[in-house]
Amino acid sequence: MLVKDAMSTLVLTIGPAHTLRQAAQLMAARRVGAAVVLDTDTSGLGILTERDILNSLGAGENPDRETAQTHTTPDVVFAAPDWTLDDAADAMVRGGFRHLIVLDDREPVGVVSVRDIIRCRSAAIVRTDAVPA
To answer: Is the pLDDT of residue 130 over 80?
Structure first.
């Protein structure tokens, strides 16, 4: 199975000036664990995850003053739609993260998460078990 088969195509995109509270509210409303941070001035892409927000709150920072830009994960690893789910899982394990932005021709077209990979793998196991021997 490929990343394009598992990824979410409803990508939450925010700007670097969004506060962490605004980002958290948008993420909660969309029920997603990550937002793509798009800086139109630099054409840069980053990712802000629930863990980034949690770390900031745990450090006692003010979510109404801290911005997405300040907490965007550095050294983002991007996936391609034609990567296998094994490729995506390997990248996540190597990098110690749970979300990958999926790019097609340098444009974000989705986000794939550990949960997406598990969902697809579980469905494949159920289908395999359902096939009579």
So the answer is: no
- 89: burial class by Cβ within 10 Å (0-12, 13-18, 19+)? middle
DSSP state letters, 52-92:
HHHHHHHTT--TTT-BHHHHSPSS--EE-TTSBHHHHHHHH
CA distances from 39 to 46, 118, 124 (A): 8, 31, 38
The alpha carbon torsion through 7, 30, 34, 64 (nearest 10 deg) reads: 170
Tokens of 118: 């598990």
pTM of the shown model: 0.84
Question: What is the C-alpha R_g of the chain?
Answer: 16
